[in-house]
Design goal:
Number of strands: 0
Largest sheet: none
Structural class: mainly alpha
Mean pLDDT: 84
Radius of gyration: 22 Å
Low-confidence stretches: 239-244
Number of helices: 19
Order of helices and strands: HHHHHHHHHHHHHHHHHHH
CATH superfamily: MFS general substrate transporter like domains
Shape: globular
Distance between the termini: 22 Å
Amino acid sequence: MVELAPRATAISHVRDLAYKKVAWRIMPLIMLCYIANYIDRTNVGIAQIHMRTDLDFSDEVYGIGVGLFFVGFILFEVPSNLLLARIGARRTLLRIMVGWGLMTSLTMFVRTPYEFYGARILLGMAEAGFFPGVLLYLTYWFPSTRRTKITALFFLGLPISGIVGSPLSGWIMRTFDDALGFQSWQWLFLLEGIPAVLLGFAAFFWLQDRLADAAWLTKEERAIIEADLADERRQKQQGEREHASGLRKALSDPRVYILGLIGCGTYTLANAVSFWSPLLINASGVKEVLDIGLLAGLPPIVGIVVMILVGIHSDKTLERRWHAAVCELIGAGALVALSFSIGQPVLTMVFIAVMTAAHYSGLTVFWSIPSVYLSDEAKASGIAISTAMGSVAAAATPMMLGYIRSATGSLSLGLQISAAIIAIASLILLIGIPASALRERHR
């Protein structure tokens, strides 16, 4: 009995070391992939400042183009995640990243609204499955109680993409404008599509699909991680029948649709941060594209700090619902405040910073919920279905905002409607997911 405590301490030390090794092995590359992913998805927010003038695109055309990205995204989200579960993360990431990198670069050749719409749909098709695929991939390596911190680390790629991407985009557009006969926004799409292709090949050669393939872990480390993951699977399987297939199980599980409705709010807030912040900064009186890029890179710095603090506190308390819901409600409040401060640069930047920090923090905690809330059978399909449902709102709200701005000359009403969608989704989170359904314990 005396030796049990030292033995338990030794196992705990090996466990911590094993998870650190896993994190250092896979997370830096995955974060780089997410940074490239989000830059390529959202660089149209900076590009449109010159693109609309050069191609005579209205705000409505821009809004439709932003929204149509999610059409291809929705159609291919679930099949991509199911394919990852079948063929592994390496081949899936190679396919996704090479496809979206090439599509980003080819966007430089669009000339008409319909060509722009087609390019955005194809970009969504190429990218579909990256986000839920990574979330699923992390469940192969980390139990739920360690996954929120790891998910927060993954989501660091989101604010970093804003910190790096917006100034980089502004610099490219100012530096390369009219070089070799190409416009500023054409150079933006060309140059920012290349890193995704290179990272796709890096992921293929560096990552492993399964824990059993991780030769860089010792046998003891692999055994401890596998035991933790098996223990988590046993807890979730208690009282559940396992006869249904994964997709059928997910489609018949009301929890998936609750998560999807909540996702509508998180995606609406994400769009406001990613696609409309540059336009709001521009509308506040900032005209130089490099200045817009530099200013758009400041709110994500605040977002990183707040996101880490919220993620740590959520992990420490093992509380997810209120952490996510309160952040989303704060984001909704910032959108309402922005609707009344258009044209005032200082207030605009303050409220964008609040909105951005709320978005990053709420998103990080919320996406740690599905892997705990859903059964193992429904997990792969369920995460993809709920993401696809959220993408419906992501497709609709930019179109709505673009139409409203074209019709009224202002974003105010659109921002207020977006805030209402986010607030409703936050209430669904608190009412639709009982605290008893998210039982976790520290490991």
